[in-house]
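Changelog note: in this version the structure field was regenerated for every chain. One regenerated record is shown below for reference.
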Amino acid sequence: MQNNKEIVVDAVITWVDGNDPSHRQKMEKFIVNKNTIDNKAVRMRYDQVNEIEFSVRSILKYATFVRNIFIVTDNQTPDFLKDKEYAKKVFPNVIIVDHKVIFEGYHQYLPTFNSLSIESLLYKIPNLSEHFLYLNDDFFFCNPVKVSDFFIDDKPVIRGFWTPFYQDIWYKKLQKVFYRILGKKGKENVYGFKKGQQNIAKILEFDKYVRIDHTIAALRKSTYVNFYKEFPELLDINIKHRFRHYEQYVSHSLADHLEIKNNSYFLKNDFQLLYFQNYKKPLFWLKYKLRKAENNPNKLFLCMQSLDQCPPQKLSYIKSWLQNKYN
């Protein structure tokens, strides 16, 4: 068995600056209803408040075993890397990878504004290690981690729970009946994170699925290479949509279920995650949750989704907290 100390591990972050006028103009060319570009649901997916710098700093501080940090983006550079001399000195192992690089051979699908499509091709990053971690730009490490938190004897650690498909849950069945009676549209043609996980589990002929959350994924490059060599059409299905589509699947859920099929995994029924999805609760509650996470060594990960939607006073506190924690 391979010693975890010998495993080389890289980290990959996907990032977009939705505030960039050129990105906005690019997107407008492909949106049918131009008014939707300012919808809250759209802005939440693309806007940012430079939290990626703290995401990178959290890796450098708490995941010291990581070799390189790849930031995958569309002809953009985060503010903290724009001074090339400074970046070379302070962040020498942070590498920008453009969409054109990983979409080589699939340039007909560019530009894309779909994280599901981009995630499907991360394994094609040049010089990416066999073992790598994937995280969004709103993910942070909040306590020290070891290689064995992600890989044990060469096998990835999957954080999740076995869960029935929607079609097998009684209240989901009942909801569908009520929708039909009331003449309401169901959500069959709407993408959702859990649905994207179920889609791939069904394709792989599971009768239930391991539900993952918004945490950091431990992945192996060869898992993707071998699968897509045999089933290239399933890659095409997932990368051809410029915007999210209800038939798409979650790429790291694909890897998880392939590892399960091959019995090359460890399942951990603990997300070890502190997750913020909205910021409506009072500031004292936010402070309490962050303080509690700092004092709990079992909380390894922090996800602050949609920080751009956070009210100014709370955002100021959060950014100050991030600055103090990771600088």
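Spot check on this record: The domain at 6-156+213-326 is CATH 3.90.550 (Spore Coat Polysaccharide Biosynthesis Protein SpsA; Chain A). The chain is about 35% helix and 15% strand.
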